[in-house]
Amino acid sequence: MSIAIPLNTTLQHSPSCLFPSYSLLYPTPLADVSVRRIRRRCLRMATSSVSSAQSSVQNGATDAVSAVGRNQIRLGLPSKGRMATDTLDLLKDCQLFVKQVNPRQYVAQIPQLPNTEVWFQRPKDIVRKLLSGDLDLGIVGLDIVSEFGQGNEDLIIVHESLNFGDCHLSLAIPNYGIFENIKSLKELAQMPQWTEERPLRVATGFTYLGPKFMKENGIKHVTFSTADGALEAAPAMGIADAILDLVSSGTTLKENNLKEIEGGVVLESQAALVASRRALTERKGALDTVHEILERLEAHLKADGQFTVVANMRGTDAEEVAARVKTQPSLSGLQGPTISPVYCKRDGKVSIEFYAIVICVPKKALYESVQQLRAVGGSGVLVSPLTYIFDEDTPRWSQLLSNLGL
Ligand SMILES: Nc1ncnc2c1ncn2[C@@H]1O[C@H](COP(=O)(O)OP(=O)(O)OP(=O)(O)O)[C@@H](O)[C@H]1O
Ligand SMILES: O=P(O)(O)OC[C@H]1O[C@H](OP(=O)(O)OP(=O)(O)O)[C@H](O)[C@@H]1O
Ligand SMILES: [Mg+2]
């Protein structure tokens, strides 16, 4: 297997972090001469960054010097792209208001978290800076965490499903020509066309996950090229046979006559809250901050999928009403229904004829729940959105503590 990467693209990435990972994956077969030449250049660059301050190119901090001696906790948020606005909206929904003086200023504050600074960065730089110690927490897509984190144990995924930025990383091939009848990764791998001299050419921006996936799937004759965007054009341009890129609606693939194949999904992705293990264990206040952010996120995200439903029911007492409600599968709520007496005044006398039942219902099951309520005598059904559900504690918090050995 060889990995062909244009020199100019490679040099924009971190030479010191990109190539050692390939050599770890493929200790010997980096046969491609051009790759060896690029590697030598990268090594020279890395060396020159030590010897000459003027020509140094570094991928964030190379040591933890900048991480020492600051008291503020740093949260990295996407500076642009499709995740940027959704991230700010989610934080706003959690009552965390990011105060950015103007859109070109890359530092901001969250008044509700006075010990925390927000730094706006490109998603891949958020991951790099978490690893270098220049950021402590970040919100990015899981695809970027996997690609740029490369399994580094210092990265901890605190919340893996923030409910936006959903997409998957997938291998796609043309739906015409020699690929017309190919439907799976297995069939693609078995095509007689791919040889050592003429490998399957894959265009991807995921130059770590791509080769790793192919190796894990036993695909030997494959070569990779990279580009910064519009990868779907590569097969029609004759540059590649297949692409490995993010897919969400599938429109871009369809519009470029490409198709996904069975077994070709590398990973499912959505936005995640990520932290540096080192920061959580060593930086004062970081753990408290992540606890607060996590609690706010969980409370909001849990409530986001639910409605509060209130209905009146006739009954002799609360227990009898509860028993009737409990016969219906969708009416248990989060912890069983809350039932309270409704005090009515009739002929100058206060009496209880109705009971109010309050339950939380998943949004998807709303209509079904209303029908079940009516079936057991519910009337005057009121439905309102739920804003927060604060549980006693969050399972993710316990997981985090045990992950940190605390
Ligand atoms: N089509 C998509 N639908 C949903 N989420 C996506 C899609 N493409 C990417 N994402 C998610 O959004 C993140 C940011 O993608 P986006 O394309 O906005 O930024 P970028 O790739 O950093 O910028 P650029 O494409 O300009 O290089 C991705 O890492 C991924 O997690
Ligand atoms: O399945 P779809 O909904 O069509 O989305 C998939 C496309 O979205 C992303 O591209 P983006 O819009 O970021 O453009 P880019 O190629 O310039 O990065 C991704 O790289 C795909 O090309
Ligand atoms: Mg993009």
TrEMBL record:
Enzyme Commission code: 2.4.2.17
Required co-factors: Mg(2+)
Pfam families: HisG, HisG_C
Domain Histidine biosynthesis HisG C-terminal: 303-387
PROSITE patterns on file: ATP_P_PHORIBOSYLTR
Ranges where the ATP phosphoribosyltransferase catalytic domain occurs: 122-298
Keyword field contains Chloroplast: yes
Catalytic activity: 1-(5-phospho-beta-D-ribosyl)-ATP + diphosphate = 5-phospho-alpha-D-ribose 1-diphosphate + ATP
Alphabetical list of SUPFAM superfamilies matching this protein: GlnB-like (SSF54913), Periplasmic binding protein-like II (SSF53850)
GO biological process: L-histidine biosynthetic process
Gene3D superfamilies registered for this protein in UniProt: 3.30.70.120, Periplasmic binding protein-like II
A single MF term (Gene Ontology): ATP phosphoribosyltransferase activity
Places the protein is found: Plastid, Chloroplast
Keywords linked to the UniProt accession: Amino-acid biosynthesis, Chloroplast, Glycosyltransferase, Histidine biosynthesis, Plastid, Transferase, Transit peptide
Biological pathway: Amino-acid biosynthesis; L-histidine biosynthesis; L-histidine from 5-phospho-alpha-D-ribose 1-diphosphate: step 1/9
One cellular-component annotation, GO: chloroplast
Positions of transmembrane segments: none
Family per similarity comment: Belongs to the ATP phosphoribosyltransferase family. Long subfamily.
Function, in words: Catalyzes the condensation of ATP and 5-phosphoribose 1-diphosphate to form N'-(5'-phosphoribosyl)-ATP (PR-ATP).
Protein name: ATP phosphoribosyltransferase
Species assigned in the record: Eutrema salsugineum
